């Protein structure tokens, strides 16, 4: 597929030189981002948001299915970050903050950030983020930042509480209005990351973090750890303090609040 075959437009209400593709249906917006990046000419990659009305094969972290009913925002940002592969994960914190700020701008709700990449309302999951690396024939590395926001609907068959904006306040923004605000917030925070480094993003993220100082269970690949969520470090890793005072750095895992796995809130 060549670049000209993608229906990219550059809306005037989006950040400068940022494109938008609006699809009726797709398997996964991250897969669309992968195809789009592969078609980009070497060294010439403009960021493009891809949104869809219906997503039939949406996925979350660790290959989990992501519920994608029409009326929710299902989108991915295809971009070529100005950083190396080892620090691309910092854009997940940028994306989380952008979602949190967008929800608060578009509603009266107070949204909070759950490590590493969820957004909560009233302690229930409202949005999730999935980062996947991309490549093209020139062996350039790009990033797909997949974002799902429960605007009108939320699942009920999950191991954690979920919520939608509609369930929380009775109304929800349109997907087009939400992606416009999201694109603007993301671009501003991306510029902040590039100009002032991850420490500036970390400070903002911690101000909106859910559960610092609370007991958590971290479910890792081969074990589970229970302790207190103390902080995130300069690389975005979660600091868990066990009852003996030892500190464990967690780079990836599922976090549950309270001593019982499955509880996302107190």
UniProtKB/TrEMBL annotation:
Top class in the EC scheme: ligase
Catalysed reactions, as listed in the record: biotin + L-lysyl-[protein] + ATP = N(6)-biotinyl-L-lysyl-[protein] + AMP + diphosphate + H(+)
Gene3D superfamilies in the cross-refs: 2.30.30.100, Bira Bifunctional Protein, Domain 2 (3.30.930.10)
Organism domain of life: Bacteria
Domain BPL/LPL catalytic: 3-194
EC number(s) given by UniProt: 6.3.4.15
InterPro entries per record: aa-tRNA-synth_II/BPL/LPL, Biotin_CoA_COase_ligase, BPL_C, BPL_LPL_catalytic, Transcriptional_repressor_C
The UniProt record lists the keyword ATP-binding: yes
UniProtKB keywords: ATP-binding, Biotin, Ligase, Nucleotide-binding
Pfam families found in the cross-reference section: BPL_C, BPL_LplA_LipB
Entry GO CC: cytoplasm
GO molecular function per UniProt: ATP binding; biotin--[biotin carboxyl-carrier protein] ligase activity
Protein name: biotin--[biotin carboxyl-carrier protein] ligase
Source organism phylogeny: Bacteria, Pseudomonadati, Pseudomonadota, Alphaproteobacteria, PS1 clade
